[in-house]
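Re: Re: token formats

Sure, here are both.
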Amino acid sequence: MSERKLNEKMTIGELVREYPKAVDVLFQFGMGCVGCPSAQAETIEEASLVHGLNLESLMKALNEQA
């Protein structure tokens, strides 16, 4: 596991570049548009709001994967 914890202010683009396996978690949460241009600039927090996801659950799963 990475020493650095992920945070909700990271963009989806940063997340995917730094932690490619995070894509699996995003897909599990129903975020299939990971590669779209607007998602690249959206923060994890913004994306969770758009998709109606529980941010705390998403961050927990992402940090466990990272």
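Second one below.
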Amino acid sequence: MTKQLTTLAKKKLVVAALEDIKGRDIIAIDVRKITSMFDWIVVASADSARQTKALARHVRDTLKEAGCAIIGTEGEEGAEWVLVDSGDIVTHVMQPAVRTYYNLEELWGEGKFDRPANPTSLAGGRLAHASEEEEEHPSLPHGKPKPRAKTSPTTRRKPAATGAAPRAKTKSKTATQARTKTRKTAGTATGAAKPRRRKPAA
């Protein structure tokens, strides 16, 4: 008797099977609102043709063991892109160059994306289409301000003096000069002898 798994349970099974043998940049895309042919697309990257075949076969065997029907498998000859069709879920195992060229994430960009598993820099630029939950709770903070550089004590500037102090000082100096000038003028008017200038010390 064939065991019937829910679509979400089957999707988790496929992702787990891909993770078992080091599939990279695993993304599940909910396309139920876009097409009626299937519900989910799972995309993963493989480092070589050998790993591409191994990942596709492991997904197929895992689903069969769970009692899920496999409609077909395509692309095992060239092993650059192997597709495993299990009805409501279609799995694409691709080598990086082929995945970049066909860019299925952009093709199905209107779907809802799950958080990627085993991410690398390869898919970093294409995973901007996060799920609604991921947008509300991002895994990494954005726009975090950088800490300010500490200023050493020697480079700190002295605070500028207020305008009141220089004006008071200038006023005081001007008053002193005025008094000295008045005394000299008064001495000249009364005929007093001018003070002798002191000779500089040898």
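Residues 7-136 form a domain with the Beta Polymerase; domain 2 fold (CATH 3.30.460.10). The CA atoms of residues 89 and 198 lie 110 Å apart.
- S.
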